[in-house]
Amino acid sequence: MSAMSSTEQPTGRRWRASLFIVTAVIALPILVIFASLLLPFSTAWQHLFETVLTDYVTNSLILMIGVGFGTLLLGVSAAWLTGMCDFPGRKILSWAFLLPMAMPAYIIAYTYTGILDFSGPIQNSLRGIFDWQYGDYYFPQVRSLSGAICMLSLVLYPYVYMLVRVAFIEQSTAVLEASRNLGKRPWETLFQVAIPMARPAIVAGVSLALMETLADYGTVAYFGVNAFTTGIFRTWYGLGDLTTAAQLCAFLMLFVFALILAERWSRQRLRFHHDSAQKKMARMQLKGWRAILALSIGILIVSLGFIIPAGQLALWAATRIQENLNANFLSLLFNSFALASLASLCCLIIAIFLAYTKRVFNSRIELGAVGVASLGYAVPGTVIAVGVLIPVAWLDNQIDFLSKAWFNYPTGLLLSGTIGILVFAYVIRFLSVALNTVDSGLTAIKPSIDESARSLGATPVRVLSRVHLPILRTSLLTALLLVFVEVLKELPTTLILRPFNFNTLAVRTYELASDERLIDAALPALAIVIIGLLPVLLITKSILNERSTNE
Amino acid sequence: MQRSTSLFHAIITTIAVSLLGIAPIESVFADEVNIYSARQESLIKPLLDRFTQKTGIEINMVTGKGDALLTRLKSEGMNSPADLLLTVDAGRLYRAQEAGVLQAVESLGLNNDIPSHLRSLDGQWYGLSVRARVLVYAKDRVQPSELSSYEALSDPTWKGRICIRSSSNIYNQSLVAGMIASQGMADTEIWLASFVSNFARPPAGGDRDQIKAVAAGQCDVAIVNSYYLGAMISSSDKTQQDAASKVALFWPNQKDRGTHINISGAGVTRAAKNIESAKQLISFLASNESQQWYADRNNEFPVRDTVQVSSTLDSWGPFKADTINVTELGRNNAEAIKAMDRAGWK
User: A253 with A30: CB under 8 angstroms?
Assistant: First the structure.
């Protein structure tokens, strides 16, 4: 460490230079997509304007608003119940609320369709019992826009829950107790104090959920909802027009960028710090019907988001366990686990670097750089994959060309078709998940802590490693977990960029499910869910431990 | 602190170990074929294993969506490791041909085995199995005599009785592309407008879902690929079998152009390093043995008549297939989508 301590200026310059290199590399694929805007706009645009574009935009906006409210409602309720209240079953619920995170949206969509569709068991038995025919009764259509909103909200609310819960728990006792001492009721404290103070966490959580929503393809495609992503793929696959598809995607990213900037700008002048060294507040004890209500709400959310779909998957998987559980399956398991570990660690390291740089320098340039680096999350995986594929393959071919010319030695494709390019793509796609989490954790630490440490002569790196990282332990683990689970579930990027003979659980699940072989798909799907649970449990343990040391 | 440090150590160790495990192993086999396959692994792997067993030629494969693989092939250029592109529709083969990533391979055997309307005329790609887009109707509510052709489904008598999946699906795009090729754009547009207004519900789900909806009474007729019905008939899942038993298959357009068909097929890439082995593989996939396997296992039709089909396929009887060159499906694909967009087919 002491080797790092030089004078302020060169460290700062080196730091900034590395920031720009990292951002540039990460932004490259995104820039490739933006560059498509410089190409001429084809006649496909006129067709889109005249026919389906309005549909795409409207549906995506409705989807966003719906999922925004859904995740906010579920996530904040769950966080308030387990973070601030106490009732029988709270401890179990506090980790059970995270379970739906392990459930990929497209899988929950397949499962609920299997259960609730017109030709599914529930409607079939209703018709059997009451001797109804089609049209004799009303039953909500699963495969619809509102169905998609429900599915996405159910699996995405844990992002809000996780971040907001940490924020609630870390909120200073003084503020909340002051609120109570001033005679405010618990609800008033929630809406007037706790929620406004947790705003960075809420915004980070909801924006993750929204970006994921905008990038979702599997669910909307299966439900036949014409959203913006289905439009991108239709333009690419159907019209065979990759340029127009990339241009559509560039507009999607501009929209997301505008949202990010608007949000940053709106809270520019606000401060959300608190003194995290203070003792945590005692929980509100819920008794009687309140406790029952709290527990019921919790059980309902967890059942809908996890127990019912996972149970259905387990039932399906059990019927084929003999045929499907073999060496091949174990290699899928291993590949998925290894890829997810590698990618999540890479993401975390880069996220710490970016978030901390932003904190130390905090000028517009750094903010912009960090903003650009986190754009990838809203971009459909396939588009990221193309954005990665084109420049990397180009670079590979240039290297091969030069090597042949200078050394008469063909290098072939060095990076394309390796695990490396895959991890690179994951980092671009999921960096924002890690970054948002680390960033919202860092924001909660008072700048005065940095100032006192720096005034004692510590370098920024030393402040980071000795002061911030230990305080941020929970946030870091959370970030690691989020990316891990994301990569485990990730499909389209893996599909395009993976090496020969390399399969993952998500790839296998998708292949079987897309062939409408849901029952065979259940085993790998269930495995994704179960592996996804391991880190969930790990993190919860650490969160709970932290609580008990503080209590 | 101690806890998190050891946790990080554990994670880093896991990653280091995993990296060793997943580091791509450079293939050491001189004889190999590298495939980019839009056909799913489980639907082709047993055949490829058989090929390796017979010839000693190793197969390496990446599966994915046709257009994504095509993009990968294009950007990798002449350094692409892929020798063979496998797709599950003619449109993508046509697109690959247009993009110049395939090369012509001459094979007298293949030209004899595969009818000319199921391959590119200059030998850039060859059809390897045939899938037919058929009508499936509810036995208790529809008489086969009421059915005739795709075109006739635009009649108002079918109002609210038709199920079909989204127009994003390639097989629907090909169906409309085929219609544009045979009837012209103007007639196709007129047909589309009435046909779409006959839908029982907004399109969603896959082909099996449409069959299930017919069985459950949500609609009376569905347009699906024949192998989905075959798979449901031979499914080990009771509910699928039950659904399949309530419906029957109808071959449309037998009195005129024939039932719309598409192909799965393969082409040797321009960057191929193992051209001879790749050719050998195509010939193997077109052989009697493989064609029989497609029919038995996937319920797809062989590309040639000499092959004995499975009992399921046999039970549907012989049919007249549209003999338009499948290249036309690829050529008209974009126009088909635009027409479907204009007609409001979701």
Answer: yes
Chain A segment 307-366 residues within 8 A of B by beta carbon are 334-335, 337-339, 341-342, 345
Whether residue A477 lies within 8 A of chain B, CB to CB, comes out as: yes
Helix (H, G, I), strand (E, B) or coil at B234: coil
Domains of chain A: 23-32+52-299+327-544 (1.10.3720.10)
Which two structure tokens, joined as six digits, stand for B314?
A: 């046999």
Sorted by sequence, the CB contacts under 8 Å of residue B20 that are 6+ apart come out as none
- B134 and B250 in contact (C-beta within 8 Å)? yes
Interface residue A58 vs chain B (CB under 8 A): no
Is A439:A355 a contact under the CB 8 Å cutoff? yes
| Complex confidence, ipTM | 0.79
Q: pLDDT in tens for each of the 346 residues of chain B?
A: 444 445 555 555 555 555 544 444 444 446 899 999 999 888 899 999 999 999 999 999 999 888 889 988 998 999 999 999 999 999 899 999 999 999 999 887 888 889 999 999 889 999 999 999 999 999 999 999 999 999 999 999 999 999 999 998 889 999 999 999 999 999 999 999 999 999 998 888 889 989 999 998 889 999 999 999 999 998 887 888 999 999 999 999 999 999 999 999 999 999 999 999 999 999 999 999 999 998 888 899 999 878 877 888 889 988 999 999 998 999 999 999 999 999 999 8
Determine whether the annotation assigns residue B171 to a binding site: no
Contact B60 A500 (CB under 8 A): yes
The annotation status of B228 as a binding-site residue, yes or no, is: yes
Domain that holds residue B225: 132-260+322-343
- Say whether both B108 and B245 belong to one domain: no
From B11, B60, B215, residue closest to A341, measured CB to CB: B11
Which chain B residue has the Cα nearest residue A121?
B239
For chain B positions 100-159, those within 8 Å of chain A (CB to CB) are none
The answer to whether A481 and A313 have CB atoms below 8 angstroms apart is: no
